[in-house]
Design brief:
The protein is an alpha+beta fold. Helix content is 49%, strand content 16%. It has one domain: Glutaredoxin (3-Layer(aba) Sandwich), CATH 3.40.30. The termini are far apart.
Length: 106
């Protein structure tokens, strides 16, 4: 399976996917830590996370997949949402909570 197919499978088979540096329990950058905290603040108990530091092909492949240059990247119901700054803005406006509720993730 090529990297793009693997990413497509990951975002297609989980309601919430976060590509991040590190893990939700041990994030390896501030932006990834913020993204995981925002999801938890929205009431998301569990989400599928991918530590891009463990796989350089995924790290570069997800940037191509979304046409977004940075990590973390959030996907809800297969749709790219954005990085930590966009997540923060959506959270503050209440839009992220709505997207997550619609996905039945929260």
């Amino acid at each position: 399976m090529d990297i793009q197919a693997q990413i497509r499978e990951q975002v297609g088979s989980h309601p919430v996917v976060l590509y991040m540096k590190g893990t939700p329990q041990f994030p390896q950058c501030g932006f990834s830590a913020s993204a995981a905290q925002i999801l938890k603040a929205c009431g998301v108990q569990e989400f599928f996370s991918v530590n891009v530091l463990e796989n350089p092909e995924i790290r570069e492949g997800v940037k191509q997949y979304s046409n977004w240059p940075t990590i973390p990247q959030l996907y809800i119901k297969g749709q790219f949402v954005g990085g930590s700054d966009i997540m923060r803005e959506l959270y503050q406006s209440g839009e992220l909570q709505k997207l997550l509720a619609e996905s039945k993730a929260a």
